[in-house]
Predict the 3D structure of the following.
Amino acid sequence: MLKILESTDAMKVETLVVTVFGQPGLGKSTLANGAEAPLTLDFDRGSHRAGNRQRTVLMDAWVDVEELLGKHRPLLDGQQTLVLDTIGRCLDILSLDIIGKNPKHGAPGSGLSLQGWGALKSGFAAFVVGVRALGKDLVLVAHDKEEKDGDNRIIRPDIQGGSYGLVTQISDLMGYLSMQGGARTLNFSPTDASVGKNPCGWNPWRVPDVEQRPRFLADLIAEAKGKLSALSGEAALLSAQVEEWRAKIEASIKPADLTALLPGAKGLVPIVQAQVRTLLGARVRVLGLHFDAASGAYGAVAAQPAPPPAPAVPVERETQGGAVAYCDHAEARPHIARSKTGRKIVCPTCIMEVTAADLRQPASA
Amino acid sequence: MLRVSVTMLNSFRLLMTEDWMDAARFDAEVRGERAPTRQMRLGSAIHAILENPTAHAVGDLDAPGEYCATVDGEEFVFPREIIEPCLAVVELGGVAECKAALDYDIDGEQVTVVGKADRLVGNSVIEYKSKWGRFDVKDYAAALQWRYYLRLFRAARVRYHVFVIAEDEGGEDFDAAYALRSIEPFDFFPYPGLAADCERWVRAFTVYAHAHQLEPWLRSSHEAEEVSA
């Protein structure tokens, strides 16, 4: 059955993609093993070095991944998290598969072509969608790499070319594991020195010993799901609040109606207040009002002398059948558009507010 | 009292971090002496179309063949193959073109940062960007725009939709001047230290503005345009 959510409905976050990157030997794989019921897809053949080792599948080729999600899917029963260790090597293996299937996508010695990069991106995105559809979390383990960013140096996950962007985009959380003051520290915040993604607003975590807290990453992911679901709930509440204000503002006709709304608008949270202010401004323009700062109230704009009548400029619009119809929105600034079929002049007022039936044939055109 | 836009602070970061941006160019930007580049005008054209597609549709209103917008006297025509996938990701809820301002006290001087978001939905800021050529999420991650928007609107998230467009070389897919390569969505969130990062850049900018005697342009309505009512 289709699950349709309105913009004002909260959405429960059920799966997450978490990227953990850092120097070799700091315990990235051990950290990943602390996720909820993990199954490690070992692309680097390094899982034997990890502490707290859990179920592991050795991956030699992309077909192993396809089979795991296909005919061997029962192996995933009871596993909540798939750990790709490392994501860099995983993408190398996917690249080889792409090149092997289509020579236009690159050559083994020279790497992916432009088309091949596109195929890598779409292939990996499809994999992530597939895993999420199974209700599983993904933990992407990556080595780190120092890169020039303008005049600065910044540490990022070591992931080839354009796929770094993809990993950044799909990751809900991205944390940098490093040694700080002699302690292993996991920082999700972006800093001048390293990238990160921190929707939970966490301070840097001191990573506990695996013996003391073997489910550290599972706890973080559970907390993140709760916080992201709460954010979605908050978003729904705020959206509903804005819609209520929209209705009140659109129902206001007199200056006093809008003035009466002002005290309530002052107490709104900034992001709702910004929306309400924009809606009020639009309504004020529609009603032709102004705000008097001295009295703190809206009032009617003093009547201006009527401008001289504009010359009646017929504005033409090509209809579907190719005939030309005319409107007389002389005040409208004609919008000139050129298509391959020739020159047309389109009246934006007509397009927005009247249908073709309202257009009239020119009396003396 | 100074007034500075988020766009200007973003350019200031480029001055501080990128070799290609120099002080003469940045100062000219602040003084409003630099005309928008063609790519900026293209971006403005797409933005105008996405904001009000009906007003820019050419041909049959139910199935427009093209969309056209004029920016600074130049007419840009885009085929529906570019515009319609972009329209499909444009959020319909919330409120478009919302403005906000945030005051900083920089050593006793009030500096107001002003910004205008493409759209606010719930607790999120939504931004639409057009990108010509190669897309790299790193360019956006390093930028200041999302950081200030998180602060100005006290938002929980800034979501970007980047429309990656290239001038079409072969016309393989359709006979048009431009081709949509991809649409890239990604999010940024507040983090501990965000407020301090934002204040640090305002402070650095203020020192620079005084040293380069840019105050007259930061007090005028020109600079405040982004949030003018």
Remarks:
- DSSP finds ten helices and nine strands in chain B.
- The radius of gyration of chain B is 19 Å.
- Confidence is low (pLDDT under 50) at residues 171-175, 222-229 of chain B.
